[in-house]
Design brief:
Layout lengths: L15 H17 L7 E5 L7 H4 L5 E6 L2 H8 L8 E5 L11 E7 L8 H10 L1 E12 L21 H10 L2 E14 L2 E12 L2
Parallel strand pairs: 1-2, 1-4, 2-3, 4-5
Antiparallel strand pairs: 5-7, 6-7
Length: 201
């Protein structure tokens, strides 16, 4: 499978949009998730580790999961993540990790997965009973956020009510949304939500 982010990885961290988004999502996670020093975390679609860096010092360790080797290579170079983050280049929907976590975080990865229901089922299986998820992505939009030539985009954002149903069906409770950020792009405003939920015990 081609690495769709191979070219974009080189300048990803320098993009203002990437910096602002990761800072806002990180701040929202710190505000709405009770992080603690014994916490084992998975960052699904971790990319270059921009969100990892927002919480790394507050948790025990982070498993950075991504299918892009180019993005993970950038993550590995960051001194603030050394000894704290382990990288896993794999599709966990096909090859799950042999570990369950206290928290799964994710930022702007869900719209790259075709089957949302299967993804939520997979993430639930990677969580301990009573563990939390904190997932950021776009609210429903008109399809103009991504350029038409961008590959690997399966959703033009998400409807919050529909997502609530999917998460509830897979054993999550206390499902809540906040608007974590707004991306200004080509004179349009694209809200980014943070969904938090707890896996039933």
């Amino acid at each position: 499978m081609a690495d769709l982010f191979n070219e974009r990885a080189q300048n990803w961290d320098a993009r203002t949009m990437s910096q602002q988004l990761s800072a806002a999502v990180g701040e929202a996670i710190r505000q709405y998730v009770p992080l603690h020093p014994q916490m084992a975390v998975m960052d699904f679609g971790a990319g270059t580790g921009l969100v990892c860096t927002q919480i790394a010092e507050l948790v025990k360790n982070i498993a950075a999961v991504d299918i892009s080797e180019a993005m993970l290579e950038k993550l590995r170079t960051k001194p603030e993540l050394q000894g704290k983050v382990a990288c896993f280049k794999q599709n966990i929907m096909q090859h799950p990790l042999d570990q369950q976590f206290d928290l799964i975080i994710s930022a702007m990865a869900m719209h790259h997965i075709a089957d949302t229901d299967k993804l939520v089922q997979c993430l639930a299986a990677h969580l301990k009973p009573g563990a939390m998820i904190a997932l950021a992505d776009l609210d429903s939009e008109d399809g103009s956020f991504h350029a038409p030539h961008i590959k690997g985009v399966y959703h033009a954002g998400f409807d919050r009510a529909a997502l609530t149903q999917i998460f509830a069906q897979h054993g999550f409770k206390d499902i809540d949304f906040v608007t974590a950020h707004r991306i200004e792009k080509e004179e349009k405003n694209f809200p980014v939500f943070l969904l938090t939920a707890t896996k039933s015990a």
